[in-house]
Amino acid sequence: xxxxxxxxxxxxxxxxxxxxxxxxxxxxxxxxxxxxxxxxxxxxxxxxxxxxxxxxxxxxxxxxxxxxxxxxxxxxxxxxxxxxxxxxxxxxxxxxxxxxxxxxxxxxxxxxxxxxxxxxxxxxxxxxxxxxxxxxxxxxxxxxxxxxxxxxxxxxxxxxxxxxxxxxxxxxxxxxxxxxxxxxxxxxxxxxxxxxxxxxxxxxxxxxxxxxxxxxxxxxxxxxxxxxxxxxxxxxxxxxxxxxxxxxxxxxxxxxxxxxxxxxxxxxxxxxxxxxxxxxxxxxxxxxxxxxxxxxxxxxxxxxxxxxxxxxxxxxxxxxxxxxxxxxxxxxxxxxxxxxxxxxxxxxxxxxxxxxxxxxxxxxxxxxxxxxxxxxxxxxxxxxxxxxxxxxxxxxxxxxxxxxxxxxxxxxxxxxxxxxxxxxxxxxxx
Length: 430
What we know:
Blueprint lengths: L31 H13 L4 E13 L2 E7 L6 E6 L1 H4 L11 E11 L4 E11 L2 H17 L17 E6 L4 H13 L4 E6 L7 H13 L6 E6 L13 H9 L4 E5 L7 H5 L2 E2 L3 H8 L3 H34 L2 H4 L1 H44 L1 H6 L4 E4 L16 E6 L2 E6 L14
Parallel strand pairs: 3-5, 6-7, 6-8, 8-9, 9-10
Antiparallel strand pairs: 1-2, 1-4, 2-3, 4-5, 11-12, 12-13
């Protein structure tokens, strides 16, 4: 905390009923007047200082100016007073939004307790200095890739809703609306107003950009402002605004000033329009041009289709003129005799093969019959089976009393063995 060393202002006697501020206590307080006088004496020992800033307020009252200067990089502000005698020596074109340097001296009014700075000199900052700073920032942003053409997004062919950021009731707004609606009458706008110069320009433009970028119905955003001197366009080269545009997900069109104006916003935007009117022409198609294009394409399509159909008809007529297609029954008649002969030959061949195979089958059937046990049985032979199905091949297999199944040429019958008998000559076959 600062300790005030001055107890009184030269020429102004301290009140008799108060103590110096440094000696004040709850039992012996100082007076407001003496405190203000002490503060004023302390401040008056400060010297003059040159400061740089932007004029954000410029009110002329009674020949004097009461205004404010804002830091170019932060929101810090000081109040300044310019007396009429000093104002006569200053440039006549000073106004809100100007970038200036001023020689100021702190001043404290002990009667009201107001603190401010008196201005003894003020002038514009040289445009060359500003341009140099802008070029350094431009080089930095280019090195970061913010101006890379590869990152620029294409604009939609026909945006459903256009977001517009501009000054309220400005010529730029009228130009964009009028020219866009002339080209496409059904175009829709969602407009956000923002200051286009001065200390409110950057924060209000960023706020409008954020709101429109978050709107799912907005397909493209246009930031538009009419022409002006380089000082008034400085807000559109502000690093905060440039980075906000680079971070937006919706395509952004820069339409600031005239053709020769080149704020940094032009470099980072997805499309740079030379004027607000040019922006309107480039974000929506011309309905009359589109209709003419459609008519031209329809005419070309009709011509191509007519040509193709005519060509196909000619080819079809050429094919139909050939004898084989003019009288197709001739081809069938010439082939019918050949078909009849082929069928007859095929039928004869099949019949011969069937007869040959039938004879072959009869021969195989006779051979098979001759080898079959049934033929042997038919001649009077029999086959004896034991109860377990074993064929009796030896008389010893059927001892006395053994049950035997005898199979003859026509059926089978059961028998019981009487045992082996003496061998007799086999009977002669009948």
